[in-house]
Specification:
disordered N terminus; 8 strands; 5-stranded mixed sheet; alpha+beta; 7 helices; 3-stranded antiparallel sheet
């Protein structure tokens, strides 16, 4: 799980390795916007160790910008999609940035009409998703979200009820108006799971066998 810090910036080995990978991908996609002209020229003749040093210096130069999220709904480069909002710590969950992936699935069911223990949290989509995947039955929406990757990040989950409500509050224009979206928050065996509409903003509990859209999300924890 990716961790960012509040100012002053503290650079640890794990964060440097993660940032280095993101910078590598950015450089391959558009080296002219990643390095200065001098750095670009140096990279063409650099040894492996020299190239890593140039990468690291560029990381240090731009690290504060990586820590600062963009406006709600905008793509956060290297962080796996669109920044939605910063969620306050509550119910044992830490303060965190909420990111939604930019791609989605259509026509997936939640799963069978079973009451899965540990998958009723309105806030903790990660725990809900883990519980659904650990059950003995298939849960297509949760499986798709958990397998989703973007910008090299693979720590996505099926959003909780609260995650979807926040996404509608802060960035509804980036979600489809043609169908409702599954959350990972189930109600019960018979009453299904929570779904969110991004056209009128409605929400409801929907039968688990029905097919709906799925968008994956991830968290970036904040530490003091």
């Amino acid at each position: 799980m990716t961790t960012v810090t509040t100012p002053p910036v503290r650079l640890n080995l794990a964060r440097a390795a993660s940032a280095f990978e993101n910078w590598e991908n950015d450089f391959r996609a558009n080296p002219g916007s990643f390095y200065t002209a001098e750095e670009t020229a140096a990279m063409e003749v650099a040894t492996v160790s020299e190239a890593r040093a140039i990468h690291f210096l560029a990381l240090l130069r731009d690290l504060p910008a990586v820590n600062t999220p963009p406006a709600a709904g905008e793509i956060w480069p290297g962080q796996g999609g669109r920044f939605i909002c910063t969620v306050a710590a509550s119910d044992g969950l830490p303060e965190r940035h909420l990111i939604f992936g930019t791609s989605e699935a259509e026509d997936l069911s939640f799963g069978p009409y079973l009451d899965v223990p540990g998958a009723k949290s309105a806030l903790d989509g990660r725990a809900n998703t883990a519980a659904l995947l650990a059950s003995s039955s298939e849960h297509p929406a949760a499986a798709w979200a958990a397998a989703y990757t973007e910008d090299g990040h693979a720590d996505f989950h099926l959003p909780s009820r609260a995650d979807l409500v926040l996404a509608h509050a802060h960035a509804p224009e980036h979600f489809s108006k043609d169908d409702w979206y599954w959350s990972s928050t189930q109600h019960s065996r018979d009453y299904g799971a929570f779904v969110q509409d991004f056209e009128g903003g409605g929400s409801s509990w929907y039968g688990k066998g029905g097919e709906r859209r799925v968008r994956a999300c991830r968290w970036i924890h904040l530490t003091a």
